[in-house]
Structure formats: structure tokens, C-alpha cells
Amino acid sequence: MLNWDMQSFIVTLIVLMTSMPVHESAHAWAAYKLGDDTASLQGRLNLNPLAHLDPIGSVMLLLTQRYGWAKPTPVNPRNFTRKITMRGGMAVTALAGPVSNLLLGLALLLVNKLAVLALGYAGQTDAAVIVSYILLMMVTINVSLAIFNLLPVPPLDGYRILAYFIPAKWEARIARYQQVIYIVVLVAVFMGVLSVPMGWLTRWILRFFALITRTPELLYV
Questions:
Q1: Would the pLDDT of 219 be above 60?
Q2: Which of 107, 155, 157, 209 gives 94 a disulfide partner, CB atoms 3.0 to 4.6 angstroms apart?
């Protein structure tokens, strides 16, 4: 999990400063659209990295180049419009973060395709290789972030989505052990326990993206 070089570190740092704010702003935007302006009032409805980055989650992303998290976006479900239940609103708000990473990854893949074509047409083959490496790595990390945050364990987004489908009493019981689960997730990420299943899902989504954008098989997986 800790096999990285300076190039990869720099690209991951770029992702940290861009994709993480997009992820958390998506949570804030979804909550705002549902009637809750808590995150907006606390300055979380913006792309300023300093408003969103979590020290531990940031270090994890830089070390693993795949998995990390930002500071939880504050959401008050009592403010949601009556058109949606509080638990339903929480699920939608949680889903917005991973979806934003997937959409950003897809957009970067399209940018990569256009950039490679443009640089190739201009005869800048070496530049095309460098730009493609950077963009494809950013695509991969964004997909990995989305998949990681969809894990159905607290405090990740996937748990907020799962909570919509389970009885409230189960959610309350799980909440008692949230701190322990959080530590277990940290250890699992650091030890690479999640690398095989998460890597498989990442490759599957990357192949799907390559298919719908008619892009050659992605190299950075």
C-alpha cells in the first residue's frame, strides 16, 4: 500500500486539494437543495481545501494514493423539506459525495482524451504521455475515493445510505461502536486489507468509463 514515488505523491496531492473539496461541497450542495443550510452557513459550500480537509484522512490518501476522507459535512436533517424523510435526505446527501467523485473522474477521462489528441496533433508526444499519466491517475484516485466512501461502515457515506434501509434501532446500536469501527477501518486501509476487493471494483468502473468514452484501456489501475 505504501509503494509510491514522488510523481505519484504530487498527483495525489493535487487530487487531495481538488477532489476532496468537490466531494464535501457536493454533500453541502445536496443538503442545501433539500432545505438544510447548515453546511452553507459554516462555509462548507465552497471548494476551499482548508474548509474541508481532515488531517488523518488526508495523510491516508497521500500514503495509499487511493483511499482517504475529509471532515464530515455538517447536516441537520430536521431542516429538510417535508417532501423527503429525514433518513431519506441523509441518504441522498451522503450519496452526493461519491457520485461527485465518479462524475469528476469521468470528466477528467474526457479531458485526457481531448488533451492527448490535441498534443498528438501538435507533435508533442512526450507531453501527451506526461499529461495522460497525470490525468489517468487522477481518474483512478477519484473512482477509488468514491468506492471507498461507499463502504457501508460508519463514518463513511455508504453507512448513511445503508441506514436508510435498516431499522432505526439497529442504527442506534451501530452508533455505539462507531469509534471502534473507525479505528478498524483505519487499520484495514493502512494494512492493505481492502486493496483486493476495492481494486477489483475500481478496475471494473474504469473499464466501464473507458467503454462509454471510447478510450483505450486505462493503464493506471
A1: no
A2: 157
